[in-house]
Amino acid sequence: MTHPPPARHGLAARIALTRGRVAVDVGLRAEPGEIIGILGPNGGGKTSAVLALAGVLPLESGHVRVGGEEWEVPGRTRLVPEARHVGLMLADPLLFPNLSALDNVAYGPRSRGRARVAARERAKTELASVGLTDHAAMKPRQLSSGQAARVALARALATDPLLLLLDEPLAALDPETRARTRSDLAARLTAYGGMVVLVTHDPLDALTLADRLVFIEDGRVTQAGSPAEILREPRTPYVGTVVGLNLYAAQGDSRGHVAMEDGGALVTTDASEGRVWATVPPSAVALHRHAPEGSPRNNWRLRITDVTLQGQSARVGLSGEIIMTAEVTLASVTALGLLVGDEVWASVKATEVRTYPR
User: Fold this and answer.
1) How do beta strands 286-288 and 195-199 pair?
2) CATH superfamily for domain 11-237
3) Cα–Cα distance between 11 and 17 in angstroms, integer?
4) pLDDT digit string, tens, across residues 14-66
5) Residue ranges of the chain assigned to CATH 2.40.50.100
6) What class does CATH assign to 244-283+293-357?
7) Nearest to 10 by CA among 31, 27, 36
8) By Cβ atoms counted within 10 A, which residue in 187, 201, 246, 281 is the most buried?
9) How far is residue 351's CA from residue 313's CA, in Å, rounded to a whole number?
10) Which residues contact 212 (CB under 8 A, 6 or more apart)?
11) Residue 4: which of 240, 173, 222, 192 has the closest Cα?
């Protein structure tokens, strides 16, 4: 298996452009061998950033430098997409229907000037790396969705790009196929020496594949860090939702009283004063049909807004004095008879409420 040409430097980019109603201004950095996961709500600028790196969208200001080369500085330099050492994979594999898997993968090296025999040999190597040697002669209609995604990945890597851009590469797959393909993707990316920018809506994709996460909301980077850092201290409501925590902007005092800016209050044993973020794990929220007795210091009468099953558990949306999500077992859903529109008591122990400075 071949590897990308050695890079003296990684990716350094500031992407500033306007697309539709969103003004994007984000900075991205990556070292060779590093996988950057980009997450954010729809319309926030994630895909615009990727298309700008690929050269499909021009910058209004900023820069794109990869491997010590200047790819774009408005008014001075702009490499067209085909001149950039980049591979691109989208949610739709976009395979050529009339070509075999082998020739789909060989198309990249051929388009960059390699002879047909050399391009096909390179394609065979790349198909082997994603476990599809026995499928080389098949046309796209003969492949499963997961196999087609792996062919698309092989095609993106067959030109040995310095920068690999993956925009929702697993979004079109069913859950079982997605899990298998995610594992295959992780294995192949481990052997890839270039830089990867992965756009995804799936927290599991980001947390299992990426070395560093970047959240883009309304065209701006709102939080960046390692998966462990993000999980430990989310800093926007959207990030809190992605990592599965109830997150509140609040004011704390030395006695452990937390007043939330959107209304409501919490009591914690983890006191931080001043402007804080307060988190409550959904698994720490207990639901009751009657007012609870005993140790919980946080109790609310709330209305059920939604119930979503996830394997052997359920996430229950709650609103009222406070908005939160509870995670309970399916047995609890049945025993309590939890239905949308019902009122229930929710309780959280003070020891389960964590705060940290904003």
Assistant:
1) unpaired
2) P-loop containing nucleotide triphosphate hydrolases (3.40.50.300)
3) 18
4) 999 999 889 999 999 999 999 999 999 999 999 999 999 999 999 999 999 99
5) 244-283+293-357
6) mainly beta
7) 31
8) 246
9) 23
10) 30, 34, 35, 36, 37, 224, 225, 226, 227
11) 192
Residues of the chain with CATH 3.40.50.300: 11-237
Between CA 268 and CA 351 the distance in angstroms is 6
Pull the structure tokens for residue 147: 């196999």
Residue environment code for 299-331, b if the CB has 16+ CB neighbours within 10 A, otherwise e: bbebebeebeeeeebbbbbbebebbbbbbbeee
**Residues 203, 209: Cα–Cα separation, whole Å:** 10
CA within 13 Å, CB half, 212: 15
Contact 193, 3 (CB under 8 A): yes
Report the alpha-carbon distance of residue 186 to residue 249 in Å, rounded.
35
> Which residue reads 């003070």 in tokens?
350
Two tokens at 22? 């969103």
pLDDT tens, 129-174?
888 999 999 999 999 988 998 899 899 999 889 999 999 888 878 8
